[in-house]
Design brief:
Elements (H helix, E strand, L loop, with lengths): L10 H12 L4 H10 L10 H5 L2 H5 L3 E6 L3 E6 L22 H8 L4 H9 L4
Antiparallel strand pairs: 1-2
C-alpha cells in the first residue's frame, strides 16, 4: 500500500522482538553488534557513565580538578584539541574570592579600601 498503513502493521511484534533481544545485552554490546552489521549507531551514555568513562579520562575529555570547596570534581575537558595548545582547567573562584582583583585592578581601589568595604559588609 502506498498510503503508509502497512508500515505499522507489525509494530508491536517488531518492538517486542527488539525489546526481547536488547534486554539481554548492555547498551555497549547492542551498539557493537549493530555497528558490526554496518548500521551507524552509538550507545547513549548517562552523565554518570560519561564522568567515569576511562577512555574519556585518558583522552582528556573528562578531567578531575580540585575545587576549593568541594574537593576533587570531575568536569568536561576543553573539547578543542590542537597539537601545541593545552588548556588547563581550573575551578571558578568561590563567591567573593576575586573581589580584591576586581575592586583593585578594575576599579582602582587600594587593598585597605577593599578591606574596609569587607569590614563594613559592603562586599
Amino acid at each position: 500500500m502506498a498510503d503508509g498503513t502497512t508500515r505499522f502493521q507489525h509494530k508491536e511484534e517488531v518492538d517486542a522482538a527488539i525489546t526481547e533481544w536488547t534486554s539481554k545485552r548492555t547498551k555497549d554490546e547492542v551498539m557493537h553488534v549493530i555497528a558490526g552489521a554496518g548500521v551507524p549507531c552509538g550507545a547513549v551514555k548517562t552523565t554518570l557513565e560519561l564522568m567515569h568513562d576511562p577512555d574519556l579520562h585518558a583522552r582528556g575529555m573528562m578531567q578531575t580538578i580540585d575545587h576549593p570547596v568541594r574537593g576533587p570534581v570531575i568536569v568536561p575537558g576543553w573539547p578543542v584539541r590542537m597539537s601545541d595548545t593545552k588548556v588547563a582547567l581550573k575551578p571558578s573562584p568561590v563567591l567573593g574570592g576575586d573581589c580584591e582583583a576586581i575592586y583593585g585592578e578594575w576599579l582602582g581601589c587600594t587593598p585597605d579600601e577593599v578591606k574596609e568595604m569587607r569590614k563594613a559588609k559592603v562586599i
